[in-house]
Amino acid sequence: MYRTHFVSEIGPELEGKEVEIAGWIFNVRDLGGKKFLLIRDKTGLGQAVLAKDSPSFSLANELSQESVVKVKGKVKADKRAPRGAEIHVEELELISKAKSPLPLDVTGKVKADLDTRLRERLLDLRREEMNAVIKIQSVAVKAFRETLYKKGFYEIFTPKLIATGTEGGAQLFTVIYFGKEAFLAQSPQLYKELMAGAVERVFEIAPAWRAEDSDTPYHLSEFVSMDVEMAFSDYNEVMHTLEDIISNILEKVRSECENELKALNYSLPEVRFPLKRITYSEALEILNGKGIDLKFGDDIGTPELRVLNEELKEDLYFVTDWPTLSRPFYTRAKNENSDLSESFDLIFRFLEIVSGSSRNYRREVLENALKARGLNPSSFEFFLRWFDYGMPPHAGFGMGLSRLMLMLTGLQNVKEIVPFPRDKKRLVP
Ligand code: AMO
């Protein structure tokens, strides 16, 4: 056993008790007769004191920053120590010595640029801010799951090696699959739809891949997609479900991650539900009024959303009813106007974090939608054939976890969020 306690559990109430802690050397202060060791574990910083007459005193000279140690000793209350107590060392074990100097300052005092941080990533992940990001993400993912389990959804796992693209062909990664061409899934789209055609309510949290050429703060070539699909449902009901999910995520992060938000010096946006909804056409009108030349059918990208956000002054809002042909083939057109679709994006200030829609569930409609986008229905036969056997109306969405995390942490770049991001220039670490 390496420890009896985490450092955050060491307090004055343990006065006189013998304990063992283990962690990384954050700092050693030499006060002549005594050495103060600041030791970090996943719960924070704790203090251990080495007296000059201790047999381990000389070993303290070897304790470079980030070396891994184990300390055994008695707790003594002291107001000057973190949480009002320190450990008077009886035994000190140097488990793993770190080289010095370190290529990155783990205390965070010396700032490093993003390239350096990503190169020296393990040290960067040990910083307090990155510990906070990792915990907040874990709490958010748990809240996402909890909300859906409560609503009777099943968690599913769909294949990631696939035969056709679904979200636009240009962004596919090709792999050689036993001598044949295959692709890495851009999203679980078609398989989550099929699963909803079997068990109605499903969700999946899994990686998705897109060969993103451009280097932006919002795109990765590998990202975690949080997907939901509901049978006997439409985009309105799906938007309500999404609101419940987001509301629970905000509530859980607010209540369980107070210290982490403080470490990031960030306050979560105060969001009121139901969220504001504006249609694509209304958004276009606002943007045209601001002198932005966008025509029906054009995408509303991040630069335009920045302008829209200045007008709407909402932290989180839906843009609904996008032009049918600007969305993938599985998106259902509106009954009353087939140029518009039952679709939505959820926008955080100026960034799309979720996109979803009602889906086509009639085979002939799907075939026409494929043809209208220059795609060949026969390549999708593995999917289309199931629409001959009773596919219910269904709807769903996909949310990018790292983009959601920008809203939950105040960070500005998804590459900061993902521990080991993949982009055009990064395949290691
Ligand atoms: P879409 O292509 O809009 O929709 O993707 C859904 C969400 O995934 C995130 N995302 C990304 N995050 C990081 N890097 C990327 N390269 C990247 N690409 C997308 C975004 C986006 O909102 N199948 C549909 C969803 C559905 O209708 O169910 C889809 O994939 O947050």
Automatic annotation (TrEMBL):
Gene Ontology CC annotations of this record: aminoacyl-tRNA synthetase multienzyme complex; cytosol
Enzyme class of the recorded protein, top EC level: ligase
Positions contributing to ATP binding: 210-212, 352, 400-403
Complex and partners: Homodimer.
Primary location recorded for the protein, binned into one broad class: cytoplasm
Organism of this sequence: Sulfuracidifex tepidarius
Family designation: Belongs to the class-II aminoacyl-tRNA synthetase family. Type 2 subfamily.
Site feature Important for tRNA non-discrimination, where: 82
UniProt binding sites for L-aspartate: 167, 210, 355, 359
Subcellular location field: Cytoplasm
The protein, known as: Aspartate--tRNA(Asp/Asn) ligase
NCBIfam families named in the record: aspS_nondisc, PRK05159.1
Binding site for Mg(2+) 2: 352, 355
Cofactor: Mg(2+)
EC number(s) recorded for this UniProt protein: 6.1.1.23
Catalysis: reaction(s): tRNA(Asx) + L-aspartate + ATP = L-aspartyl-tRNA(Asx) + AMP + diphosphate
Domain Aminoacyl-transfer RNA synthetases class-II family profile: 101-429
Molecular function GO labels: aspartate-tRNA ligase activity; aspartate-tRNA(Asn) ligase activity; ATP binding; magnesium ion binding; RNA binding
Chain intervals for the UniProt region annotation (Aspartate): 189-192
The entry's keywords: Aminoacyl-tRNA synthetase, ATP-binding, Cytoplasm, Ligase, Magnesium, Metal-binding, Nucleotide-binding, Protein biosynthesis
Record-level GO BP terms: aspartyl-tRNA aminoacylation
Note on cofactor: Binds 3 Mg(2+) cations per subunit. The strongest magnesium site (Mg1) is bound to the beta- and gamma-phosphates of ATP and four water molecules complete its coordination sphere.
Signal peptide range in chain numbering: none
InterPro entries: Aa-tRNA-synt_II, aa-tRNA-synth_II, aa-tRNA-synth_II/BPL/LPL, Asp-tRNA_synthase_2, Asp/Asn-tRNA-synth_IIb, NA-bd_OB-fold, NA-bd_OB_tRNA
Annotated Mg(2+) 3 binding sites: 352
Function noted in UniProt: Aspartyl-tRNA synthetase with relaxed tRNA specificity since it is able to aspartylate not only its cognate tRNA(Asp) but also tRNA(Asn). Reaction proceeds in two steps: L-aspartate is first activated by ATP to form Asp-AMP and then transferred to the acceptor end of tRNA(Asp/Asn).
